[in-house]
Amino acid sequence: MKFVFRHENRTRKKSIFFTAEHTEITEKYFYYNSLARWPLCAPWEVFCFYETVMKKTGEKKMKKRFAVTAFSALMLVNCPAPLSAQPPDESRELSGLYFDQGETVQTATRAPKPLSEVAENVSIITAEEIERMNAHNVAEVLNRVNGLYVQFNGRDFNGLDALFIHDSDYEHVLVLVDGIRWNFDNDGMTVTNSIPVEIIERIEVLKGPGSSTWGSSLGGVINIITKPTGNTSRPSGTLYGSYGENGSRHYSGTLGGKAGMAGYFFSVANQNSDGIILNRKYDDESVYGKIDFSLPHSTTLTLTAGQSNPDSNLGDIFGNYSIYHRDFWGSAALDSALTKNLSLHVDGFRKKQDFMYPPFTDYYDAETTGMSSRVTARAANHTIVMGAEIDRVESASSDAAIDGGREETWGLYMNDTFTAGRFAVTPGMRYDHLSLTATSGILSPSLGMTWRYSDSTLFRALAARGFRKPYQTIGISTVDPEKVDSYQAGFETTALPSLRLKGTLFQHNIRDGWEYVGSTAYNAGKIRRYGYELEAATDPFYFFSLDAGFTYTYIDYRDNTGRNNDDTYSLKLGLLYDNPQLFTAELFGGYQWLNEDRIFSAYKDGVMIWDFNIMKKFQICPNTQMDVFMTAHNLFNGADYWTQFYPNPGRWMEAGVRIHF
To answer: Which domains can be identified in the chain, with CATH numbers?
Structure first.
């Protein structure tokens, strides 16, 4: 039986929970420059500067490792200019919040299209923003997204967390890595700490069902898109090292470039911590590689492979038991431009996930093999996408009920985005065949529209049907899929001077909602979740800018469980000072008021948790930049946790260096 890292005292989902005595298990209802003047750009300058900055930390071991690595890398780089300040940049791109003809989204239809033609409620996080956060894991990054709640299990250096969109269940949220489903096949949960943040180019978050494109995704879709390969013969990349309290350290390196017809991108990373509090130790080693080959006839072959091995110690409260997690994934994709307006994509992948608890010999292993293909046709004002995919899962588990289990799902989908003047309309449809339910086939239609009322204002509307498929856990194969009819409408505007606004109304009507008696699921009835999102951001003013997001969700239970209606709301605030000639500093605060389904036993919420990041950039030479940064987590010692068994640490600090070459 796989560990579920949350408690739901209302829905009574079966999970494993450790007692305070640490001795038994009890069940609870719960990412050369030309004209060179010198052959080298004084790498000793980098070393001496780093010595000065880090001297106060007293971490000799870290300094030695970093200095050797940085020196070796810089020996390979031609640097034709001495230390100089970075040229000023008076503007800041607010990508992903507000419509922009230059910004594209691919998650909505699987084909990139302008954000101004996307009817779905989408947020985008870029690699630049992730870098500015100094984030160690995907959960930290997603915590910045309005409308998305991250249930941290301790807010330690790293760990195991759950994701919710518009107060959905965590199994409702589909997480993808370059189109590969990351959710566990036995219960739909996603553990994102196995996804290295170093490889992430951008994250697209689609709020609301994405079933007409992706299949089972009742609550939303989080699509993690990895960095591309390099396009120059001169290699480029990053070297990163950070050190924080209680031996919390993160080292990584990336390298990208092109050799002949082959482009490449590689990443290696190591994270280790003794635990900020309660000895919640953490260790992870990850490696990732991507190679693409330019073939004749406008064809590209892309090969990827990665492995991550996070080990999370649950700390003193749980008897220092560790959760061992192993992920391996590989894929091959072929992209070809058949004609000027017709393209073909074919891919295949294999993913292996191992999850186990050594003290109890409980484990869950799954091997998933999948293939997909799609054709994208562009003609006049239309962009048509047609595709098919199939996934097969084989499971091994200490739970006899799912040991040796097999599952096969396949789907066919089609959508068309057509524009007429200021309007863009996107109808879509998908059929899914499910092997673990009597309801073997399910249709998921959607219809979205955008209207550019003016050059500064855009309106959106979407109606979509989605579902959550049954899983391999005990008794679930006897239930019908959960279904949702979702309606959203919103606007985005820059009509007000120096201010950008976005608002969305949503209503998600769930039918055949799941409820549990012990470990057996049944279809209990209807649940309605409705509310609104508001977002605002300012243009930079004397290098300062503000952004804010507020989400309110009301849950109306219309099933036979007798649960009381409830609500939840969140507030997210950010203040950014971005002066390239001086430094970049960011203050971010998050507030969450939880409903009763999200809390258990002496919880604490309703407190703003603030994080502070500051970074100084040094242009060592035209091809090399060094960033020195410091982060203060939980700046004001706030307490915010969903259960007393996962308390968050108070204020803790870390600092580090990042070199771009």
So the answer is: 14-30+32-41+77-660 (2.40.170.20)
